[in-house]
Amino acid sequence: MSIYELNSIVKKIDEKNLSDISDVLNKKDIWIKHSLSHTERMGWLDFNKVTNSSQDECSKTIKNLESKKFVFIGMGGSIQTGKVLSQISNENNMLFIDSTNPMEIKSISEKLNFKECIFVIMSKSGTTLETLKLMHFFINKVKAIKNNNFGQNFIAITDKGTDLEKFALKNNFFKVLVSPKNIGGRFSSSTFYGMLPYCLIKKKLTKKFYLNSNEINEKCSLILNALYASINGLDFKKINIKISSDYSEMGIWLEQLISESSGKDNKGASPVISYIENEKSNLKIFTSPDNKGHEQEVLRINLNKDTILEDMYFWQISTVILCKKLKVYPFDEPDVKSSKLNTLRILKEGEKNIKIRPQFSGSQFSKLLGPNKEKDLLYINLYIQEKKELKNNVENLKLLIKKTLNIDSIAGFGPRYLHSVGQLQKGGPKNIWVLFLYDENIEKIRTNNDGISEFKDIYCSQLLGDLMALKSKNINTYLININSKKSNPFDNIMEEIKEL
Fold first, then answer.
1. Confidence of residue 274 (pLDDT cuts 50, 70, 90)
2. Topology of the domain covering 43-202
3. Distance (Å) of CA 182 to CA 13, 123, 158, 323, 391
4. CATH 3.40.50.10490: which residues of the chain?
5. How far does the chain reach from its first CA to its final CA, in angstroms?
6. pLDDT the model gives residue 161
7. What is the pLDDT of residue 461?
8. Can you tell me the distance from the alpha carbon of 253 to that of 492, in angstroms, rounded to the nearest whole number?
């Protein structure tokens, strides 16, 4: 198991925590009143049962399946557990796609050998725009080499009765794994969404999952005490998390869990996550920095890759209890819909409305600081192809903004962040500002009737749709164009910051 070490300044065992943990495990209603029934969203609490039954079914599914590459397609909670597991296992026979960036899709499709691929389509609702568009794009690729007999190259994971399930059955998919309706996406780690990649990694080395109440009480209580210490005394509540770079995908998983669960009703806890380069397998929670920049470590978790699913479970329990303290309901995401509706409307109106018109260039960042000096948090929404070196540049930009301007920031790649911190941006505390950084080369991408042009339209519509949703809530929102062909697309912004 992972090792949890709580700073001695923080109380280790709290009877109130133990009471809350017991209430959650017994599926009691401890949150504010809500139209949704909490019992319809708490199937994930049966960790031992759900994890072991999911593992058994996934093991049977892949037992006689020969493939050199598994391509997982999904958004948000449905795909992020698999990305965590893949990163920490260094598994190279799995690929994860959670983007509609046309440059990224084009690059991926040119490298795949479609005969050797099994595509795993993951959507609880069965209607996720990005997931379905990607599914049909790759179906057409497989059709081209298999004379329309594409079904055996596809697996679907979805809820009972969805359009995706019906389509998969009609087209003879290799397997349809029906996920439990009473488990939401960000709580789905122990279901097929997490267990299929887990079984592909472990192959025949499966284990019997078992957590006892003592282990759950101890670990969840430690996390809760650290979370409470991190946000203690803050009007604008931020959770100061640092995580080793070898577990960066775990950071993104945590970001979604906390943001979508807590960010609503103009409340929420904002996970400000940074990455540690010179340590391995560590996750730390700190107090927020004081006026002199001093911060104190309150919890250190030395992560064990063999029990990461158990750690996710502890965090899920702790997060829903945190939501009780914040007086928000953890099992909905009411503000995600506005961006989706805007996107669909823009796509329906046609190409003439899908135009990106940046307000500022990368050398005009300083103009934005004046009206935002008193804001508590900056969100950076990136519409640029996600690459390893670029991600390093993003982290350097965030560090520079913090060091020079003392501004905390949360950065996410579009459209993935829409299924994560997008809820927190629109539903959480409003003393924020938002910066969209858009790759000007997207407009110049050439398409040859290969389906890429549709992704270009979707990608740009998602940016515009979210921009409109944020502005409709009177949030200071700005659009800056950047050039992905530069070695560091943010160099103009960074040079300007250094001169301030």
1. very high
2. Rossmann fold (3.40.50)
3. 31, 14, 12, 19, 35
4. 43-202, 336-498
5. 47
6. 97
7. 94
8. 31
Instruction: Report yes or no on whether pTM surpasses 0.85.
Output: yes
Beta strand 282-286 with 238-244 is antiparallel
CB 267 within 8 A of CB 429: yes
Predicted confidence band of residue 243 (pLDDT cuts 50, 70, 90): very high
The pLDDT score that the predictor gives to residue 362 is 67
Contacts of 183 (CB under 8 A, 6+ apart): 41, 43, 44, 50, 191
Residue 489 near residue 367, CB atoms below 8 Å = no
Residue 383: what pLDDT? 96
pLDDT exceeds cutoff 80 at 13:
no
Say which residues have a Cβ less than 8 Å from residue 41's Cβ, sequence separation at least 6.
Answer: 182, 183, 184, 187, 331
The token pair at 374 is 């008193």
Q: What is the pLDDT of residue 9?
A: 77
Share of the chain above pLDDT 90, in %: 82
Weakest-pLDDT range from 202-216, 300-314, 380-394: 202-216
Mean pLDDT of 461-485: 94
What is the average per-residue pLDDT within 305-315?
Answer: 97
Domain at 336-498: CATH code: 3.40.50.10490
Give the per-residue SS3 of the chain.
Answer: CCEEEECCCCCCCCHHHHHHHHHHHCCCCCCCCCCCCHHHHCHHHCHHHHHHHHHHHHHHHHCCCCCCEEEEECCCHHHHHHHHHHHHHCCCCEEEECCCCHHHHHHHHHHCCHHHEEEEEECCCCCCHHHHHHHHHHHHHHHHHHCCCCHHHEEEEEECCCHHHHHHHHCCCCEEEEECCCCCHHHCCCCHHHHHHHHHHHCCCCCCCCCCHHHHHHHHHHHHHHHHHHHCCCCCCEEEEEEEHHHHHHHHHHHHHHHHHHCECCECCEEEEEEECCCCCEEEEECCCCCCCCCCEEEEEECCHHHHHHHHHHHHHHHHHHHHHHCCCCCCCCCHHHHHHHHHHHHHHCHHHCCCCCCEEHHHCHHHHHHHCCCCEEEEEEECCCCHHHHHHHHHHHHHHHHHHCCCEEEEECCHHHHCHHHHHHHCCCCEEEEEEEEHHHHHCCCCCCCHHHHHHHHHHHHHHHHHHHHCCCCEEEEEEECCCCCCCCHHHHHHHHCC
Segment 93-100 shows an average pLDDT of 95
Mean pLDDT throughout 49-61? 95
Question: CA torsion sign, 83 to 85 to 89 to 95?
Answer: negative
